[in-house]
Write a structure and sequence with these properties.
mainly alpha, Regulator of G-protein Signalling 4, domain 2, two-stranded antiparallel sheet, 60% helix, elongated
Length: 244
C-alpha cells in the first residue's frame, strides 16, 4: 500500500514536470542545482581533481564525501535517491563498533528499504530479498552486503552514466576549475569566489564534455528540505565491499 502511494506521488510529480514547457522545467532544475552547488562550494567543496576522479569510476564517487552529496542531489531529480540512502545506511550499519541492538537495527533497515512495499523500497530481486530476510534472526555486520552490492551495481550501470552527462556534474567541474584559478597563495588557500557568476558556469557546462580520464553537517535544498550527513559521510570509505 505504501509503495502504491509513493508511486502515485512520483507519477504525479513527473506528470507535472512534463506538463510545463521543457524550457521552464529545465530552468527549475538548473535553479535548484545552482542553489545546491553554491552552498556546497562555499562550504569547501570538491577540488578539480576530485571531480575528475568521479568520471573515472563509480567507486571514486562513493569514496568521496562530496561525490556522494552531488550524486545524491542528482538522484533526487530522478526520484531515486532511496538507492544512495540505502547504500549509505548499509555502510553505516556495517561499520558499527558493537553488536548491541544490531538485530533491531537490521529489522528497521529491512522494513524501510528491503521488504516488499516498504516505504523506501529499493529494486532487489526476490532471491536476494528472501535470503536477507532469513539472515535477520542472526543479524551481523554483513547482513546487508549482498543487497548493497546489488544496489551499487544498479546505480553504476544506470544512474551513474546519466550523472556524468548531467548539467549538475558538468557545472561542478566548471566551478572546481574556477576555484582552482582563484588560488591565492602557495598554501593552497582560496580567495572568495563570486557566486553571482555561477550562471555563467552553467552556461559553459552545457557545452563541456566529460573529462577524459569543512562539509556542512546539513545540506539544505531549494525545496526547503534538509539532509543530515554527519554520521554517514564520516564512514563512507572505512570499509570496501568485497566484489563477487
Amino acid at each position: 500500500r505504501a509503495i502504491g502511494v509513493r508511486d502515485k506521488i512520483t507519477t504525479l510529480c513527473r506528470s507535472a514536470s512534463s506538463a510545463v514547457p521543457q524550457s521552464c522545467a529545465t530552468n527549475i532544475v538548473v535553479s535548484n542545482h545552482r542553489v545546491f552547488l553554491g552552498k556546497l562550494f562555499r562550504s569547501g567543496g570538491p577540488t578539480r581533481e576530485d571531480v575528475e576522479d568521479w568520471a573515472r569510476s563509480f567507486e571514486a564517487v562513493l569514496r568521496d564525501k562530496y561525490g556522494v552529496l552531488v550524486f545524491r542531489e542528482f538522484l533526487r531529480t530522478e526520484f531515486s535517491d532511496e538507492n544512495i540512502r540505502f547504500w549509505l545506511i548499509c555502510e553505516d550499519y556495517r561499520n558499527k563498533s558493537g553488536t548491541r541492538n544490531m538485530q533491531r537495527e537490521a529489522f528497521k533497515i529491512f522494513n524501510e528499504f528491503v521488504a516488499v512495499q516498504a516505504a523506501r523500497e529499493v529494486n532487489l530481486d526476490s532471491n536476494t530479498r528472501l535470503q536477507t530476510e532469513k539472515e535477520l534472526e542472526s543479524a551481523n555486520r554483513n547482513t546487508f552486503d549482498q543487497c548493497q552490492r546489488r544496489i551499487q551495481s544498479l546505480m553504476e550501470k544506470d544512474s551513474y552514466r546519466r550523472f556524468l552527462r548531467s548539467d549538475l556534474y558538468l557545472t561542478a567541474m566548471e566551478l572546481s576549475k574556477l576555484r582552482e584559478c582563484n588560488v591565492s597563495n602557495k598554501h593552497g588557500r582560496h580567495s572568495v569566489i563570486d557566486f553571482r557568476g555561477i550562471k555563467n558556469a552553467f552556461t559553459t557546462a552545457k557545452h563541456s564534455s566529460v573529462p577524459p580520464s569543512i562539509i556542512p553537517s546539513t545540506i539544505n535544498y531549494a525545496d526547503g528540505s534538509s539532509s543530515s550527513m554527519t554520521n554517514l559521510n564520516s564512514k563512507i570509505v572505512s570499509t570496501k565491499i568485497n566484489q563477487k
